[in-house]
Amino acid sequence: MKKLLLILFLLSTQASFGQTTQREVIGRDIGQIKGLKILVRITDEITGDPLIGATATVPELAINKVTDTNGTIELILDRAEYNLQFRYVGYQTIDFPITAVGDGRIAIRMIQEDFQLDDVVIFGRDPEKNIRSTDMGVVTLSMNTIKELPPFLGEVDIIRSLATLPGVSQVGEAAAGLNVRGGTPDQNLVQFAGAPIYNPTHLFGLFTAFNADIVNDVTLYKSFIPSKYGGRGSSILDILPKAGSISNWGGDLMVGTTSGKLSINGPILKDKISVLGGIRGSYINWFLKALKNPDLKNSRANFNDANLIISAPISDENELTYSFYRSYDDFAFASDTTVSWTNTSQSLQWKSQFTEKLAMNVLGYFTQYDYEIFNQSGFNDFELKSNIRDLGAKLNFSYDFSPKNRVNVGGDFKRLEIQPGELTPSGDEQDILPKKVQNEQGIESGLFFQHEFELGESFGITYGLRYDMFQYLGPRIVQQYDENKPLSEGTATGEVAYTDGEKITNYNGLGPRVSMRYSLSKSSSIKAGYNRMYQFIHLISNTATIAPTDVWKLSDNFIEPQIVDQYSLGLYKNLKGNIFETSLEVYYKGIQNVVEYKDGVNLILQDHLETELVPAEGRTYGVEVYVKKNLGRMTGWVAYTYSRSLRRVITPFEENTINDGEWYSSNYDKPHEVTVIGNYKIRNNISLSATFGFSTGRPVTYPVAKFDYSGISLAYFDRRNELRLPNFHRLDLALNFKLNGTGRFFEGDWTFSVLNVYGRKNAFSLFFVDEQGSPPQANQLSILGVPLPSLSYAIKF
C-alpha cells in the first residue's frame, strides 16, 4: 500500500503569519491544541459521484465516521501514523496508511466490487449501528437494496419496498400511501429533498411517483422520531436525492414494458457545480387496449415526472443544493371522465460548517398539489378542481461537544393554503350550478431541541423537546350551532365572518421525545422510547386508500389537532459477526382527535365538513419481529408483525355514536402480516429475487339487509368494520442479468419479473349488485388476478 505524507503549507510559510501564528504552529508540535484537521472526500472511481454514508475508520483511535451528502468526512487527529480504512456497501475496502503532520485533504476514489455482498443492508452503512445507536424504528433503504426486489411492471418501487418491513403495510394491491403501525396514510410526512409531497403515487398507487435513478436513499422514522420533525402522527419518510458528479458526465437509461426513464448528470463547472436531471414517463395504454373489459379497453392512463438537482459545494465548509420536482397523472375511464393530479415542489438548501464543532442547515421550499376531474360525457359536463399550497422554511444548528455528545436546536415555519373544491359547469346545456368551497389557510411553526450523548460503552440516550404552534386564519365564514344538539345544517344558529389574516383559533403543545439504549454486549442491546406528535392537517376520506378526490382539511374550532403518544421497547441482537441482524419491538400508540365520518357521509364540495365528521379516539399496539441476513450468496429478511388498530366514537348524541361506543377495527387493522424477501446470487452477474407476502384481510362493512322505501331499494348497514376481506397472499419473482460488453452501451441490466406468480385473486374490495327479484349479489374486485410478467433493460453511460 502506498504511504501518504501530509505536509501543510502552514509549516513552510510560518514567517508570513507573524509571531502569534508561529507560536500556534509550535503549539501543535507540543500537543497544546486539540489536533489536526483532515478533510476526506470519498467518490466513485468511475462516475465521480460522492458516496454518501461511506465509513472511515481510524483503528488506532477507535474512530468511525460516516460521510455527509457531499461525500465528506472531517477527522481530528494528532501528529502520528495511522492506518485509515474506508468502506462502502458494494465497493472494495481501501486501506490507506498516512503520516499526519498538519492539516490537509485526502481524495479517496472507491471502485465497485463485481460481487456485492452488502446489497440488503438496511440500518445504514455501519453494520453495528442498530446495536450501538439510540435509534429505534429507523430504517434506511439504499437504492441497491430496493433494486434487488421484484419490480412492478419493470419499475423499482420505493413505497412498496418500505411495505416489506415490519410495522409498515398497505391496504391492498394498487393502494396509495403507507400505513405505519396501524396509522392512517395522512399521518405520514413524505418529503423529497426536504419538501413535503401530498400524493406520492402514480396511477392511484400502481407506481411510486419518484424516479429511483434520482434517489440516493430513503429513511423511514416510525418509532423514535427526532424532534426536528413535526406535523404528522405516525412516521416521517425522508427521501434524499442524489447529487450529480462534479468531474464526469454520465447517465442512466431504462426501458420497460410500460414505462421508461432517462437521467443525465455531470459538472456545470468542473469540481464546483454539478447538475442531475431526470425524466420518466409511461406508455401503458397499449396494455389497456389489450384487455377484454370494454370499459378498461376504452380507458387511457398516463403519468410522467421530472427532476432537476443542482449542487454547488462552493467551499469545504459551504454547500448549496437546489431541487425541482414535478409529477403529473391523468386517467380517463371509458373516455368520458378524466382524473388528473400534479405534484410540484422546489427547495433550496444551504449547509455550512462554521467551525469543527458548529454546523448549520437552512432549507426553504414551496410545494403545490393540484387535482382535477373533467366530465366530458356530453350531459352535464363539469370541471372540479382543488389544490393545496405549502410554503415553508427550516433552520437547524448542530454542535458536537465530542463524537459522542451532540446538540441540535432550530425551528421551522410553514404557511398552508387549501382550496377544497371548485365546481365549474362546461358545455351549453347544464343542470349543474357552479360552486366553490371556502378556502382555508393556516400557519404552522415549531421550535425544537435535541441532545444525544453516551455514558460509557453501555448507555446512550437521545432526548428532546418540540413546541408546536398552529393558527387557523381567515378569511372565512364560520357557522355556529346549537350547543345542545349534534352538528348539522339543521342545528345551525348563525354565522361569524372573519377577515383576511384574522385569527379564528389557535393550538399549541409541547412534544417530548426520548430514546434510550443499554448495551448487554457488543452484539446486543435493549432500547426504549417515547414520542408525542401533533398533527394539524387531516385527510378527509371514507375510503381505505388515498384518492385524488380526498379532501385535505386544516384543524379549526370544530376539528382539533390529532395528538399521538407512542411508547416503544425493543431488543436487538446481531449474530455471527453481523452476518445476521435480529430485532423484536413492541409498541403502543394512543391517538386523540382522530377523524371518523358519519354513516352516509357526503365529503365532496362540502362547505361545513364538521357536520359530516365525528371525533374519535384511537389506539394501536403490536409486536414486530425482524431477521435479516446481510452477507453471503443468499441475502434477505423475514418480517412478522402482529398489530391491532382500533377506534372508538363516544359522543353525547346517540345518532353520532358508532358501534354503541365500543372499540372497533379501523380500516387499517390487519392483525397478522408476514413478508419474506430473498435474493440469491446465481453467478456474479445473475441474481434471482423473490418476495412473498401474507396478511389478514382488512375490515369492511357489508349491508346486512335491504328494504324498499317509496319504491326505492335501500341497503341497511349494522355495525361498522365487523367483517373482513379474505386473507391476502402473493408471490413475486425477478431474474436479473448483468451483461458485460465491449462498450458501455453493451453493458446493462436485464430484469424479467413476474408478479402474482400463482395467479391469486386477492380482493381489493367487495361490492354488491342489486338485481330485481333476487338477493344482492356480491362481487369481488381484484387488481392483479393473474400472473403479470414484465421486462426492462437499464444501462449506465
TrEMBL record:
The family database entries (InterPro entries) matched by this protein are listed as: Beta-barrel_TonB_sf, CarboxyPept-like_regulatory, Plug_dom_sf, TonB-dep_rcpt-like
Task: Name its GO BP terms in alphabetical order.
Answer: siderophore transmembrane transport
For this UniProt record, the keywords arranged alphabetically read as follows:
Cell outer membrane, Membrane, Receptor, Signal, Transmembrane, Transmembrane beta strand, Transport
User: What range does the record give for the signal peptide?
Assistant: 1-18
Coarse class of the primary localization is membrane
PROSITE patterns recorded: TONB_DEPENDENT_REC_3
Which Pfam families does UniProt cross-reference here?
A: CarbopepD_reg_2 (PF13715)
Annotated membrane topology:
Multi-pass membrane protein
Q: Which GO terms label this protein's molecular function in UniProt?
A: siderophore uptake transmembrane transporter activity
Q: Which GO terms describe its cellular component?
A: cell outer membrane
> Would I find DNA repair among this entry's keywords?
no
Q: Which residue spans traverse the membrane?
A: none
The record's annotation in SUPFAM superfamilies points to:
Carboxypeptidase regulatory domain-like (SSF49464), Porins (SSF56935)
Localization, UniProt: Cell outer membrane
Q: Which family does it belong to?
A: Belongs to the TonB-dependent receptor family.
Q: Which PANTHER family did the record assign? A: HEMOGLOBIN AND HEMOGLOBIN-HAPTOGLOBIN-BINDING PROTEIN 1-RELATED (PTHR30069:SF29), TONB-DEPENDENT OUTER MEMBRANE RECEPTOR (PTHR30069)
Please state what the protein is called: TonB-dependent receptor
Q: Which organism is it from?
A: Algoriphagus aquimarinus
